[in-house]
Amino acid sequence: MTEKKEEFSEEIKEARKNLSDTIVETKHSMEIDGKKYDYLARVGKIVMKKEEDTKTPQPVSEIFFIAYHLEGVKNQAKRPITFSFNGGPGSSSVWLHLGMIGPKRVISEVREKPVPPPYVMEDNSYTMLDMTDMVFIDPVSTGYSRAAPGEKAENFHTPEKDVESVGDFIRLYTSRFSRWKSPKFLIGESYGTTRAAGLSGYLQERHGMFLNGIMLISSILNFQTARFTTGNDLPYILFLPTYAATAYYHKKLDTKLSLKKFLAEVEEFARAEYSFALMKGDSLTFSEKNTIAKKLHEYTGLSVKYLNDTNLRINIHRFTKELLRSDGRTIGRLDTRYLGYDRDSVVEHYEYDPSYAAILGPYTATFNDYIREDLGYESDQTYEIIANIWESWKYDKQMNEFLDVGETLRKAMSMNAALKIFVANGRFDLATPYFATEYTFKHMFLKPELKKNITMKYYDAGHMMYLNMFSLHKLKKDLKKYFSTAYAGADEK
Q1: Phi, psi of 54, deg, nearest 5
Q2: Which of 132, 196, 218, 312 could form a disulfide linkage to 432, CB 3.0–4.6 angstroms apart?
Q3: Which of 469, 429, 486, 445 is nearest to 217 (CA)?
Q4: What's the farthest any 2 CA atoms get from each other in the chain?
Q5: What's the mean pLDDT in 114-143?
């Protein structure tokens, strides 16, 4: 039985026929470390088409992007290009763009406190423009990117189709703007690291595009490390050091150790005594359970009774409410330094993530002004900073198992022994805890010579560690050092 080809209405046919690339270019300049940099900003949409339709390729989506290319480069083939995206799934690329590596930066935090409106954006002296050209990509349904008329947006809402869509855009951009000879990098944050790992395999095996490096900001590659489902004890172990760091930051613990030494002690407890206790399940004796509960109390600030009542298993959503319940405050998930208010202190989960509330307003307002006023791109569409696609996002290929792209990355590194990985971790990040990231990489079982290609760095901030100025400064230094080893000619303009 042959599949019936979908027929579009005349209105949809006309809309599909009228789709075309819309690109605006403007010129800018800025100073980085006292040196002037002139650059071209390229903004717009590229219509993506089905390659199998060889006679008249049909549109499937419009991908919105913002790119920055350094001007006056003698040999563009030696100039690196970095493709950037955020996570969600459902997030636009605005966070890395206007928070960390783009030429402009939003001020959303001053002395670890969120700023009030109206919001300010300034030249970003920590941009990566002095090291690489950059292309910020909004996956379908985020930003201004949309499925083509007649195409279902949910067809793009799986890990595999997402990687395919973004990977095909990277291939097309690389071809259209003559960057095949350039050193190529990816940088992703949160679910964007999941996408980046998936792309490491897709770009190599589908398009023959071998990368020089991948930068993973607040990484999650193996979803078993973060899913608090019945029977999966792994997250309780891997989240514990971040619970401890949070309790330490909010002065709920009685310890004189430095944060670094304190966390080393907690990590060892998590690997050994705590893991063993959870493994025993209900065969744990009353005495053994109480001993572990007392230790957890020392590390998390939660009461021994509460810890016993939870069977020694601290759920992330309960923790964000429980730690400061007596103070009438909640803590953030993305960044546990941030505090929020709920209607009352009785409920189990917080009403909202205060660390997300602190950034949504500044980034939305400044982006919508910047795209029109500075970059000259006008659209009456809503720029979807965070698109609500969680219900339509499917993990069909992962039925009865957890998504794990760590294996994809391992294979890509094995095929491309020159591939260098940079991993940035925030110690106050409960979305993608650093101990879970360490666990994932330690269980990739890379050969010693490939393990040397991984750089792991830590910052005393949250999921978006670049909100903190000290961490942003350290990040730029760490990335410069990483780039100096990631490809030959790194110091060339």
Answers
A1: -70, -30
A2: 218
A3: 429
A4: 74
A5: 95
Q: Is the pTM of this model over 0.85?
A: yes
Domains and CATH numbers, the chain: 10-224+360-486 (3.40.50.1820), 228-352 (no CATH)
Nearest Cα residue to 95 out of 108, 114, 112, 111 = 108
Place of tokens 């954006």: 121
For 386-419, the pLDDT digits (tens) are 999 988 999 988 888 899 999 999 999 999 999 9
Report residue 14 as tokens. Answer: 């006309």
In 10 A of CB 15, how many CB atoms? 15
Closest CA to 333 of 209, 270, 246: 246
Which amino acid, one-letter code, is at 328?
G
Distance CA 64, CA 170 (A): 12
Q: Please give the backbone phi and psi of residue 47, each rounded to the nearest 5 degrees, phi first.
A: -80, 120
Among all chains, which residue has been given the structure tokens 């189709």? 161
Q: Enter the tokens of residue 357.
A: 């509330």
Distance CA 342, CA 365 (A): 25
Local confidence band at 488 (pLDDT 50, 70, 90 cut-offs): low
DSSP assignments along 126-138, one per residue: T-STTT-EEEEEE
Span 314-372, pLDDT tens digits? 999 999 999 999 999 999 999 999 999 999 988 888 999 999 999 999 999 999 999 99
For residue 47, the surrounding DSSP H or E stretch is: strand 35-49
Residues in the chain: 493
- CA atoms of 134 and 480, how far apart (whole Å): 15
